[in-house]
């Protein structure tokens, strides 16, 4: 798989996103093209999982829109991601916090990490 | 057809200009050495024989060693004949992935993964017979009728039945060239190619 490493290196994006993990609250600034116009949409929520490695990795962000949960999967290498902001570092015990899907309201809160 | 011998490395994905995520196959194409040039006068037909992938010298027979010595190269594992190179190539020349530099499309030939003995549903895309329920049992993936009865009193040749599947030579035609990395002889094409990772491929223009 040595040659695969060469390819991954070659295809790696030059963007430098801050490091985040599951449980963190982030805002993804996402470019949307409508006809000829381009605008930036923000998607703020909790990272519930990170998947894959290198330029083909993805991460899933979950937010509550009213009382409906919305999840969005972003590929890290997507040219449409303008920037990623980290709002909060959450304290969670696992890498994939799917239990969050069942919780609503006060129980769906995540404790903030204190350094 | 001009071409090269290659090896499947693996798959990945690339975002194109439109921002679409395109599945891609990574191929190590070349470097190939010209091991023999066959001519009309001597061999009856005109081809260029290319060799790819080094082979252990200990595992090479003496007649083979002599063949590779003529081209002044090390023993190669895979030898394939190609046409269309014309007169501008010499014995012992090395061809690399830059052969495809101004191509947008390539064809890739390879041997598909062997599937073993398979039924007609997987092997020929049959739909099976009838339902899962309504009193029926164990006919879900059956082939159904093989033909008539007393006339013709036999099963026609070529009737599609269960049997060995996969392990056949298949050509993936018109694959778009996404990227070429000349330093490592890497060719990245859109879509999939036949065979497992590490299998030999024939890439033609």
Note the run of SSEs of chain A as H and E.
Answer: HEEEEE
CATH topology of chain A: SH3 type barrels
Helix content of chain B: under 10%
* Quaternary organization: heterodimer
Taking pLDDT < 50 over at least 5 consecutive residues as the criterion, the unreliable ranges of chain B are none
Q: Which architecture of chain A per CATH?
A: Roll
Major beta sheet summary of chain A = 5 strands, antiparallel
> How much helical structure, as a percent, in the residues of chain A?
under 10%
Provide the structure class of chain B.
mainly beta
Q: Would you count the extended β strands of chain B for me?
A: 12
Structural class computed from helices and strand pairing of chain A: mainly beta
Mean pLDDT of chain B, rounded to whole units? Answer: 88
Beta-strand content estimate of chain B: 35-45%
In N-to-C order, the SSE pattern of chain B is EEEHEHEEEEHEEEE
Question: What can you tell me about this protein's structure?
Answer:
The complex is a heterodimer of chains A (115) and B (205). Chain A has 115 residues and is mainly beta. Chain A contains one helix and five strands, in the order H-E-E-E-E-E. In chain A, strands 4-3-2-1-5 form a five-stranded antiparallel β-sheet, with no helix packed on it. The model of chain A has no long low-confidence stretch (mean pLDDT 86). Chain B is mainly β and 205 residues long. Chain B is built from three helices and twelve strands. Chains A and B meet through helix 1 of A and strand 1 and strand 2 of B.
């Amino acid at each position: 798989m040595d040659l695969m490493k060469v390819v991954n290196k070659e295809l790696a994006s030059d963007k430098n996103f801050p490091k985040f993990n599951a449980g963190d609250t982030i805002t993804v600034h996402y470019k949307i093209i409508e006809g000829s116009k381009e605008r930036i949409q923000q998607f703020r929520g909790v990272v519930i999982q990170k998947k894959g490695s290198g330029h083909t990795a993805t991460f899933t962000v979950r937010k509550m829109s009213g009382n409906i949960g919305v999840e969005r999967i972003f590929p890290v290498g997507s040219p449409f991601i303008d920037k990623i902001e980290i709002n909060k570092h959450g304290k969670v015990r696992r890498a994939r916090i799917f239990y969050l899907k069942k919780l609503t309201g006060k129980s769906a809160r995540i404790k903030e990490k204190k350094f | 057809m001009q071409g090269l011998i290659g090896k499947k490395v693996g798959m990945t994905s690339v975002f194109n200009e439109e921002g679409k995520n395109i599945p891609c196959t990574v191929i190590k194409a070349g470097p190939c050495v010209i091991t023999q040039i066959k001519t009309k006068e001597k061999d009856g037909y005109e081809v260029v024989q290319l060799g790819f992938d080094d082979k252990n010298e200990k595992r090479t027979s003496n007649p083979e060693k002599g063949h590779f010595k003529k081209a002044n190269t090390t023993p190669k594992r895979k030898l394939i004949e190609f046409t269309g190179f014309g007169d501008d190539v010499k014995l012992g020349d090395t061809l690399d992935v830059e052969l495809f530099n101004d191509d947008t499309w390539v064809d890739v030939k390879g041997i598909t993964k062997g599937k073993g003995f398979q039924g007609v549903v997987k092997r020929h895309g049959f739909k099976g017979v009838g339902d899962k329920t309504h009193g029926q049992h164990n006919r879900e993936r059956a082939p159904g009728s093989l033909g008539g009865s007393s006339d013709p009193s036999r099963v026609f040749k070529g009737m599609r039945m269960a049997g060995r599947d996969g392990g056949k030579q298949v050509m993936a035609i018109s694959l778009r060239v996404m990227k070429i990395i000349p330093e490592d002889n890497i060719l990245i094409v859109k879509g999939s190619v036949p065979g497992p990772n590490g299998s030999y491929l024939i890439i033609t223009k």
